[in-house]
Write a structure and sequence with these properties.
Oligomer: single chain
Shape: flat
Radius of gyration: 18 Å
Number of helices: 5
Largest sheet: 3 strands, antiparallel
Structural class: alpha+beta
Length: about 140
């Protein structure tokens, strides 16, 4: 069972859950502006993030995007043009942490994002085709 939320927090979380994609603070504010109760978004974000209910992802432009943590989305983000591509699945979904290393810590969610260059930016910058990202191994 999760934390007890106040009415404002519930309203914000419901708006994020109903959105089909991540929302910026400005987009979320525009959605919620029609409501009867004004709210300080920074305070609500902070409270929800403390409870592990909302995750924040920063674009190379500095813009923050918010989504509920139950939405297990991960992305490839171009550091040049900012293009973001959602991964079809979570590459670490089945990963488990050894109980002995948790020290009583309760994991709530994880984030995973890859940064690089999209195909258009690679071509524009003259990059040759490169192999996929993989862990380096020494012999």
């Amino acid at each position: 069972m999760g934390p007890k939320l106040n009415a404002r927090q519930s309203r914000l979380l419901d708006a994020l859950r109903q959105a089909g994609e991540e929302l910026s603070g400005q987009d979320l504010h525009a959605l919620l502006r029609a409501g009867a109760t004004p709210m300080g978004l920074a305070t609500v974000y902070r409270q929800l993030q403390q409870w592990g209910l909302v995750r924040c992802r920063h674009l190379p432009s500095g813009e923050a995007l918010f989504a509920p943590t139950e939405r297990d989305d991960h992305h490839l983000t171009c550091v040049d043009c900012g293009h973001t591509q959602r991964l079809d699945r979570c590459p670490v979904h089945g990963l488990t942490l050894p109980q002995g290393e948790l020290g009583g810590f309760l994991p709530l969610f994880h984030t995973l994002e890859f940064f690089g260059l999209c195909q258009a930016c690679q071509q524009r910058q003259g990059y040759a085709s490169s192999p996929p990202l993989s862990p380096s191994r020494s012999s």
